Amino acid sequence: MPENSSKFEGASLAGANFKDVNLHSARFIDVNLARSSFSNVSLAGATFHDVDFGNAAITDAKLDGMMINGILVTELLRAYGV
Predict the structure, then answer these.
(1) For FRET with 72, which of 5, 33, 65, 82 sits at 20 to 30 Å CA-CA?
(2) What is the Cα–Cα distance from 44 to 48, expressed in whole angstroms?
(3) How many angstroms separate the Cα of 3 from the Cα of each of 6, 7, 19, 39?
(4) Measured torsion, CA atoms of residues 3, 5, 7, 11, in degrees rounded to the nearest 10
(5) CA angle (26, 39, 8) in 5-degree steps
(6) What is the pTM of this model?
(7) Distance CA 49, CA 45 (A)
(8) How far, in Å, CA of 29 to CA of 32, rounded?
(9) Per-residue pLDDT tens for 13-24?
(10) d(CA 72, CA 14)
(11) Which DSSP category does 35 fall into?
């Protein structure tokens, strides 16, 4: 682990607010982000595996290059006329 990093295990940060925070290259394993909100957040290059996106909403997002199961999201939206 890099010298300037923090490690949280078994911690509850429920209700916490993060503003102007750098979590570049952070790892989230077995984390509950249910009902969380994200605004003006960069997820560029992020990878999601075994993730529950049930009832998630994405609005006003830059989707260029975003893939779901190997399929470009922009192509899916184009196919559906969105």
Answers:
(1) 33
(2) 12
(3) 9, 11, 23, 29
(4) 150
(5) 30
(6) 0.79
(7) 13
(8) 9
(9) 999 999 999 999
(10) 33
(11) T
